[in-house]
Amino acid sequence: MFKNKKVPYLNLIPILIISFLLFKVIDNVEFLAEGFGMLLSILTPFFWAFGIAYLLNPLMIHLEKRFKLKRGISLLIVYAIVIGFITLSVTIISPTIASNIGDLANNIPEYAIKTESWIRSNIQKLNLNNNKDIISWINNLLSTSSGKLTEILNTGVNTIFNKAVSFTSSFLKMVFGFIISVYILNDKELFKNTIKRFLYATFNTKSVDNFLVFTDEVNRLFSQYIIGKFIDSLIIGILCAIGLTILKAPYALLISIIVGITNMIPYFGPFIGMIPAVIITVFFSPIKALEVLIFIIILQQFDGWFLGPKILGDKVGLNPFLIILAITIGGGISGVLGMFLGVPIMAVIKTFLQRYMTKKLEEKNIQESTK
């Protein structure tokens, strides 16, 4: 009879295998990064599909609950609305925006001359001609600012066209994602139940219950904030277009879209949208630019004090400091998209930390201070 002898150092084999795999990963990090990028590119339509389905889901649920519609009918109505909006944008709004951008680019030199002439004429009215230092400073400012502004605007126009070309190259992926989103919405309950079954089969029941409660709260935060902010910014964009049309401001549609999009960013968005609006108008007429500036300030005050609170309320539960912190960090990491998504992400982090601290305090029998 042979006795079972324990092989020496057998417990080191898993450590050696893991170390070898880690070495291979580090040694081929560029190849792995390239492969990961290719995988993300392949999965891009599914990211689009999930995003589109997530945004359209509340409207579908509302139709089903409000009008007692079946899933197929509600999907048909939702996608008919979306396709109608896209058709309207492509056939009416997009050509007008493209025309405004092209006209602005072509007329920049003329607008710069008009602005310079207006400033010089007002200098004469103010009797500043006797002060040579002021006149010299203003002339230098005009000569340098005109060229810089022209260069900035031309660069901005070129950037917009380059982004449009880049967007067109990924258009098929977006269309494919649009089609996949139909199936995601149609079978969303099946997907949710499958994920729940997997979680309950794999992890502790109490942990899964807590996780599902947390994900429901995260979903509520994101959906209410994103959809509410979209509706709020859409209304502001429409009101801006109506107001600028009444003021007979140039490029009213282009400015309104800029104001509406930047309004999606809390706190800083209104100021970000105001700057290009004034710069675009000042070349046409400085007086008109002042009117546009005053109008947008009034519009943003209306949004901040009345419209925004009515639509959004206190959806995220963050104080101004945390909102500004979220916008700053998000903008530094991912630009404009990060500035927008930073707020709900910060709300999720705050919710998670509050739950964690409450749980730990209860375990230690420490009562939370209400002060």
TrEMBL record:
<feature type="transmembrane region" description="Helical">
    <location>
        <begin position="76"/>
        <end position="97"/>
    </location>
</feature>
<comment type="similarity">
    <text>Belongs to the autoinducer-2 exporter (AI-2E) (TC 2.A.86) family.</text>
</comment>
<protein>
    <submittedName>
        <fullName>AI-2E family transporter</fullName>
    </submittedName>
</protein>
<feature type="transmembrane region" description="Helical">
    <location>
        <begin position="7"/>
        <end position="26"/>
    </location>
</feature>
<feature type="transmembrane region" description="Helical">
    <location>
        <begin position="320"/>
        <end position="349"/>
    </location>
</feature>
<keyword id="KW-0472">Membrane</keyword>
<feature type="transmembrane region" description="Helical">
    <location>
        <begin position="38"/>
        <end position="56"/>
    </location>
</feature>
<feature type="transmembrane region" description="Helical">
    <location>
        <begin position="164"/>
        <end position="185"/>
    </location>
</feature>
<feature type="transmembrane region" description="Helical">
    <location>
        <begin position="234"/>
        <end position="261"/>
    </location>
</feature>
<keyword id="KW-0813">Transport</keyword>
<keyword id="KW-1133">Transmembrane helix</keyword>
<dbReference type="Pfam" id="PF01594">
    <property type="entry name" value="AI-2E_transport"/>
</dbReference>
<dbReference type="InterPro" id="IPR002549">
    <property type="entry name" value="AI-2E-like"/>
</dbReference>
<keyword id="KW-1003">Cell membrane</keyword>
<keyword id="KW-0812">Transmembrane</keyword>
